[in-house]
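name: query_chain
kind: protein
chains: 1
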Amino acid sequence: MSLSWVSPILVLVGVIRAIWGLPFLMNIPAFKHFTASTFQNNVILEEEFLAASFAPWVTWVCLALLLISGTIAAVLLIIAIRGHRKRSNYVGSKMNGVHDYFTVPLLLVYAVFNTLWEPHNPEFWIALIPIGMLAIFRGVANGQGSVLRYMLCCFFVAALFLGNLLGAVLPQTSHKADYWYNAHSYLIRNTGPHDLVVTECGYIGTSYLRLYADCELLIASSVPATELPARMLRHGEGRVLISSWIFEPPPKLQPHLRASGGARNRGAVLAALDSLRSRMIPIDDNGYQVILELQQQ
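structure:
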């Protein structure tokens, strides 16, 4: 939890990502390079993987819808600011005041917390979007030019809906575009209730395995390193499967592992498992991780 000169920029990024689904931008080389160099401590693997599943026309249509909805949003914001200054009685000035007594403190408290915690994370800003939208459209309703205002609102909603539908919602309905599902595909499809899977994949990968894989799961960093080999050797019926991410996680995954605490005692885990490495036989390599099986003596 900290505050720095880049916090306002990260807040803007988080708010924009909460409103617009932007994975398609990863198909634009300049944006992809900018994101990778600017947000080195954040995981963008899943966005890159999702964007790779888009047809080229989807990327450009989504970009056009983003520019249209973004431009309209800027115009509506200006109208809303002027409308709030006008303070007409379209719902009564007393109702406006009551609404502000609740809206302003709520937005401020959440905004301060989000800025200090994870300002770039859209999940923290999603709860504020309906409240912020209501506040903005209250101001828009006070503005001048009723036909223009209603047309702008309709075009904004339509462009936002279509852009998010094509660029975020529909692509995520398929496991083929899901990085975490594909990275753990062998474990999801080929493990049973008697198998023990030893891995270090962060809280997202762990959640996927608990949801989709029918196996016993052991996170390497969740037990003392000195007890890990004995825990694996004590396993009875079924296989003991080990993920290569314990030994060599993908470079782009390391920020996520650090955030999950998985890199905390990695050296001790590697040292503890060194005596078992010769008994670990590779049985699958899907390009994302190698799955090894511990050969029991």
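note: The first strand starts at residue 196 and ends at 199.
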